[in-house]
Amino acid sequence: MSRDLRPPVDILHYEIVQEQASALGRMGRTLEQALTRLREFDAVHALPEVPASLQAARRKLVMDAGQALWMLVVQRESSGLRDSRHIMRTYNVPAEVQHCMGLAPAPMKPAVK
What we know:
The chain is mainly alpha-helical.
């Protein structure tokens, strides 16, 4: 029977670092998926201008990607990784997604009866 002779603080630190890495991985995959959905939408609707009927759907995809980007950036910064340029290059994040990063969606307007 082997015993771990490391101090409890070292074991706790190891567990925290493992969870941070896991969270970064999950958030990175979420961003990848959101960007893929946006790119697929743009590929299917490759028009010079998106028709008004599809603008709301596209805007939601952009906002979803912006939220995913924001979550990843915040998690990285809380882990001590302050430079976000690496994320923007690695994931090829469009400028419009970067610009809406961290924005809360506009409240829904009540339905008019």
